[in-house]
């Protein structure tokens, strides 16, 4: 029987990073994964590389290019006539990027001497060593490991009575592979996936209706960002978002799908060519044999861990989407590093307070730290500086002037408590705020640091100046 220092179950951004880091630290490590590509081949990288972050961002970029050429190039004096869309070529580019990245994980495993096993991993018992059965179809092999890292990720949450066929009614998997642009796209859930995928297909020509159960839009974001994003998404971009919708019968036919829903007191029925269901994700904790080793899950199915990702069973750790905290790839990966270093006798911990969030819409939304509404609720005294991109020379040159950077700082200490961005390259700009907050910086620190001109980062500089009521360009 093969015996390892560390067995990682799941090769998503949490698991593969944990395995690589553990091997780098001299631990004999195996990573077990059961994901198969649509062609039925084992494919490392989890949801993120196969059917999440990477393919969605590839399509996002393609659809933004299409929109630029159609609607924005003329402002620059560039004429492009007879522009047409080749959806199969767009999908092939996306698939190639996915293939390169998923294949790359195998190479990284080889380079770092991580053993890779394909199949479903299930714990069958413990002691000094844990036993893990790895099965594929009718064959199975049992291995043992002194330490186990559970990184089994998440799966789309289902709505009862709605059958996902990934043809007419899709989750994220189908939504990334429509063979042609649906004339009418319905989306259930105005969360991150709904907004990102809805925007992609809208830019490519679909008429998009998003049905959201909650009466508020983007409740996790800062209210001023959510309010301005709502205005841009509904008025300028033309997404038809219906808040407070209660979904009724969903019936898929051969060519269309009908959705009944209650909205503003009346029952409505809409017909779509495709429907995407994106109502959150649930942790993959079933059929893992957790009970055989005494690992507990909470009432929502998440594995219970402490602030260093240790379960109550010594030497069993859990990371990523399968535990508390935001379901984000970078959070999973950092937890992977944490547990590998902990197993190797070092110290590791992820600061969940400073995880950056990004929503890849256009304009992008990004934030770190606390929102203004949270500070108010907690009675924290704060000061705020908000700088609009319309005053940024670089944003003007880009032709992307919507949105702003908003900084919140403690009224007494001036320490930065939160930064919220709606605008171009918010995903890149947010890193400055994360670094600043990790180092306990004040708004004045950012205000006194030289930012290149002309750059979008000047908006961060000005927002920091604004906290001290001393804008220089506003
Ligand atoms: P996963 O990536 O889910 O990987 C878990 C792996 O474990 C999978 O391969 C699974 O097949 C395997 N597995 C499960 N059970 C077993 C078992 N018993 N035995 C063997 N293998 C098993 N996050 C971002 O930060 N940025 C983004 O831009 C972003 N975009 C996204 C877009 C979409 C459409 C989706 C769906 C998600 C997106 N996410 C994004 C979220 C991100 O994909 C997840 O947070 C991340 O993949 C979680 O990583 P993980 O390693 O915890 O789990
Ligand atoms: P989400 O939690 O972001 O949004 C789900 C939305 O569906 C919510 O607004 C919720 O109120 C709504 N909803 C729930 N039940 C409903 C119902 N019955 N009818 C109508 N609306 C309903 O979840 P998601 O968009 O599915 O994404 C899942 C996770 O994947 C996210 O939490 C995020 O962590 C991750 N993700 C991240 C990125 C990124 O980092 N850019 C991109 C995509 C996904």
What does this molecule look like?
This protein is α/β, with parallel strands linked by helices. It is built from 13 helices and 22 strands. It has helices at residues 15-24, 46-51, 53-72, 87-112, 172-175, 192-203, 223-237, 329-343, 372-377, 393-398, 426-438, 443-448, 458-467; strands at residues 3-9, 29-33, 115-118, 120-125, 130-136, 139-150, 154-156, 169-170, 184-188, 207-211, 240-242, 246-252, 257-263, 266-272, 274-277, 281-283, 316-318, 357-359, 364-369, 382-388, 404-410, 416-423. The strands form 5 sheets. Strands 1, 2, 3, 4, 5, 6 and 17 form a 7-stranded mixed sheet that branches. Strands 8-15-9-10-11 form a 5-stranded parallel sheet. Strand 18 (357-359) and strand 19 form a beta hairpin. Helix 1 (15-24) packs parallel to helix 8 and helix 3 (53-72) runs antiparallel to helix 4. The longest helix is centred in the first third of the chain and has 26 residues, at 87-112. It is globular and about 65 Å long. Nicotinamide-adenine-dinucleotide binds next to helix 6 and strand 18. Nicotinamide-adenine-dinucleotide binds at residues 159, 188-194, 196, 211-214, 247, 278-281, 326-328, 358-360.
State Rg: 24 Å
Outline, from the CA principal axes? globular
Helix coverage percent: 25-40%
Mean pLDDT: 97
Uncertain runs are none
Overall strand count? 22
The description of the largest β-sheet is: 7 strands, mixed
Q: Provide the list of bound ligands, each named once.
A: flavin-adenine dinucleotide, nicotinamide-adenine-dinucleotide
- In terms of DSSP E residues, the strand content is 25-35%
**How many helices?**
13
């Amino acid at each position: 029987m093969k015996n390892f220092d560390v067995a990682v179950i799941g090769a998503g951004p949490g698991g593969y990073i944990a395995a690589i880091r553990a091997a780098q630290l001299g631990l004999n490590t195996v990573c077990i994964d059961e994901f198969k590509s649509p062609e039925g081949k084992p494919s490392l990288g989890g949801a993120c590389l196969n059917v999440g972050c990477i393919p969605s961002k590839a399509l996002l970029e393609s659809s933004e290019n299409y929109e630029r050429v159609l609607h924005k190039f003329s402002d620059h004096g560039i004429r492009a006539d007879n522009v047409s869309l080749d959806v199969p070529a767009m999908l092939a580019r996306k698939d190639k990027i996915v293939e390169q990245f998923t294949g790359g994980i195998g190479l990284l495993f080889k380079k770092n001497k991580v053993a890779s096993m394909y199949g479903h991993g299930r714990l069958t018992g413990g002691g000094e060593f844990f036993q893990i059965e790895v099965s594929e179809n009718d064959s199975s092999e049992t291995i043992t490991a002194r330490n186990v890292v559970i990184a089994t990720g998440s799966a789309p949450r289902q709505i009862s009575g709605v059958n996902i066929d990934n043809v007419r009614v899709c989750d994220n998997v189908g939504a990334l592979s429509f063979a042609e642009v649906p004339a009418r796209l319905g989306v259930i859930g105005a969360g991150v996936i709904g907004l990102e995928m809805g925007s992609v297909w809208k830019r490519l020509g679909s008429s998009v209706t998003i049905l959201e159960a909650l009466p508020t839009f983007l409740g996790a974001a800062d209210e001023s960002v959510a309010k301005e994003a709502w205005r841009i998404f509904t008025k300028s971009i033309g997404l038809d978002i219906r808040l407070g919708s209660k979904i009724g019968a969903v019936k898929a036919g051969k060519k269309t799908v009908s959705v009944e829903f209650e909205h503003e007191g009346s029952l409505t029925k809409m017909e779509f060519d495709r429907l995407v269901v994106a109502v959150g994700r649930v942790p993959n904790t079933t059929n893992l044999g957790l009970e055989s080793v005494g690992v507990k899950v909470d009432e929502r199915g998440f594995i219970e861990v402490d602030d260093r990702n240790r379960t109550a069973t010594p030497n069993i750790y859990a990371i990523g989407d399968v535990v508390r905290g935001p379901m984000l790839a970078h959070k999973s990966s950092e937890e992977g590093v944490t547990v590998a270093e902990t197993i190797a006798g070092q110290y590791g911990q992820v600061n969940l307070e400073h995880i950056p969030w990004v929503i890849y819409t256009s304009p992008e939304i990004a934030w770190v730290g606390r929102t203004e509404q949270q500070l108010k609720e907690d009675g924290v005294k704060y000061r705020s500086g908000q700088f609009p991109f319309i005053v940024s020379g670089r944003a003007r040159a880009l032709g992307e002037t919507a949105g702003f950077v908003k900084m919140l700082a403690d009224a007494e200490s001036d320490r930065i408590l939160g930064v919220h961005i709606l605008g171009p390259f918010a995903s890149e700009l947010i890193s400055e705020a994360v670094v600043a907050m990790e180092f306990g910086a004040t708004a004045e620190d950012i205000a006194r640091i030289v930012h290149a001109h002309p750059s979008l980062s000047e908006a961060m500089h000005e927002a920091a100046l604004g906290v001290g009521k001393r804008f220089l360009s506003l």
